[in-house]
Amino acid sequence: ILDKSARHYGVLYPVQTFSKNKEVNFSTIPFCIEANKPEVKEALIALATCLSYDVREISTQARQIIHLAAVFACNFPNYLFVAAADILESREISFDILLPLIWESLNKISDMSPWQAQTGPAIRGDSSVIDRHLQLLAEFPEYKDIYRLMSEEIICRKQKKADN
To answer: Whole-prediction pTM value?
Structure first.
């Protein structure tokens, strides 16, 4: 798009979610840059390095893949937190009971791959717990479908890894 309207252009893409009234530490945010000319690239690198220690030159295709992966890593888990909050609130249980579990899950993937950190009834192949959970989700059909699909995908991936 920019190619048709400007001779010098680039993209400065911070890999981060932003919210009003929530401060972030820019120095740790990866900044991805693309540019159509070396002088634009140098200007973007200079700007980005004033903001962050992590500056990477990427292609348009890589940026699109990073954005897709970010939706899976950020937006979808956040919606699962919404689901968890709804389920708990339906029984007057505060969401904060899950915060230590959530933080530990996030911390684990600093030390091991997300797949190695995978836990729960699906990875254990515990169909009786999965069935009980699906019954408990009767009043949340939209979450029941998500639970079923995600459990099936975990079981399927585990089986594929075992077959290799």
So the answer is: 0.87
Beta bridge pairs of residue 56: 32
Which tens digit of pLDDT belongs to each residue from 85-108? 999 999 999 999 999 999 999 999
Both tokens assigned to 137: 């989700």
DSSP 32: E
Residues 6+ apart with CB under 8 A from 83: 140, 143, 146
Q: In what order do the strands lie in the sheet with 31-35?
A: 10-14, 31-35, 55-57
User: Which has the higher per-residue pLDDT, 92 or 160?
Assistant: 92
The answer to whether the CB of 36 falls within 8 A of the CB of 11 is: no
Helix or strand (DSSP H, E) at 33:
strand 31-35
